[in-house]
Prior knowledge:
Chain A has 303 residues and is mostly helical. Chain A contains 15 helices and no strands. Chain A is elongated and about 75 Å long.
Amino acid sequence: MSTPVRTADAAAAAGTGGNRAPAAGGGTRLPLPAGPRRNPVIRVAAESADLALRNLLHLRRSPGLLVSSLFEPVLFALLIGYVFGNSLGGSAYRSYLVAGLIAQTVAFTTSFTTVGLARDLEQGMVDRFRTLPISRVALLLGRTTSDLTNCVVSVAVTTACGLLMGWRPHTGPLHAAAGILLVLLFAFAMAWIGVFVALLAPNTQVASSLGLIWLFPATFISSGYVSSTSLPGPLATVAAWNPITSLAGALRKLFGNTPPPRFPAQHGWPAQHPALYTVACSVLLIAVFTALSTWRYRTRTNR
Amino acid sequence: MALLGPNGAGKTTLVKILTTLLRPDVGDAFVNGWNVATEPEKARATIGMAGQYSTVDGMLTGSENLYLIAKLRGLGRRTARRVADDLLSRFRLTAAAGRPARTYSGGMRRRLDLAAALIGAPPLIVLDEPTTGLDPESRLDTWEAVGELVDDGTTILLTTQYLEEADRLADRITVIDQGRVVAEGTSDELKATAGNRLVLYVAEDHDLAPATRAAARATGATPTVDRRARRARRVEAAVTDGRAALGRALAALDEEGVDVLEIGLNRSTLDDVFLGLTGSATRAEAQPGGTR
């Protein structure tokens, strides 16, 4: 690989229309094309919004993309609520279950983010965007925000399934609104993990399997479906600190759903402050995975 | 300006560095005076990129594609819409503007891709192998579009492995091989450096060997023999001193006692230059652009 040095020379020649640029200076700087100078934050927001709208257009053009968001929640509600449900406490269990289903649904929509971004990477759309003078984070931010749509659809379906199974919220609209906000915040945080997974995967196929695999342990080792205290040894500790547990717990509190009679109670700080812990985890996840993803996006070179 | 080279020569690598998709390992690269490694944002602002590795969004319509790029280049809504419409009509895509780009033919997609590269009027357009993988008709279509851009005075950096393409579209050609510049100049200059070629035809197969010896003696080069064309037993060799070589060849043929059907000096084609510069026959085979 002796390419770069000569390449760079040729580049200089090419860039300045055949006159070799002096090594130090870099030749005449052509003025940048005039464009409205904007505040960087507004710029990133505008670029992200443009890209998010593009993703939404995809959904409109090909609603089939929503199929998994529609049916996955129904599937889980049926499987867990009725295959395991009766041994775990019948209708009391199913009322308890819904918050767990919502938490799991939210987590599973990240696989959509992973696949969507991986496809853009593979098809070269990302390269097109990367040659544009736009912020590096805009493409990722556009993706994580537009995918909240999927999340909303999935959560709505889960909620509908819950209502059909006999689940009812026992608190007022303010609590429900707080629950929805919490779900959206957590969904946004999880989407950033999905983005990072897509950036790690070498192609769409790997991305779609990777994007699902990590979700199973991440969602099942929690108290989404059972009390985390009933898990053996270290798994109980993992489950207790899993934000899926705290999201489910927070939603149960906000909707006033109590565990079935024989469920062991949960202890520990996250169990006592589930909403606060979920918010803290979300913020942490967003901070860490935005940074990791942006770094990976910057340094990733497509084959 | 065309960048010409066989597969793996480093054309796309160079393009990726210039368009800031890759960072150079060593050295500096400047685009319109902006260092791509230290001021990538500014370098990107002065480049429009189209070709092999960039693409249009198949799910969006032609006009949505252009509108999106225009918005991302910082144009306002109304301006973006106008720019998109102008480009669509300029590239004869107005009729297809409302159809998803995935329904476009290869040539239409490339035209849309080209149009996208022009948004924001960047001073330099980089086209990476704009006609690779296109059928002949779409290729002509794309050439026409690029030709119009050149006529309008847009600076274009074009990479290609098709000699014909470089010959036809570029004012200046840089030939690179294995990451090195091996020649630079206008198409005519390059053809001149390769000199002329002595070409002779003999009537019988058994005349080929002595004719080849004679050609080798006269030119000092290794002649190539084309046996594939059955009727034309053709011997070719590069010459640098034209007329004198022709005289020597006639004398040598006389000594060998061979009759020739036809003998003459041909001006080199860009193919000859290219193959001469990039070396071995195996690699010449590996590069599909060498033949028409």
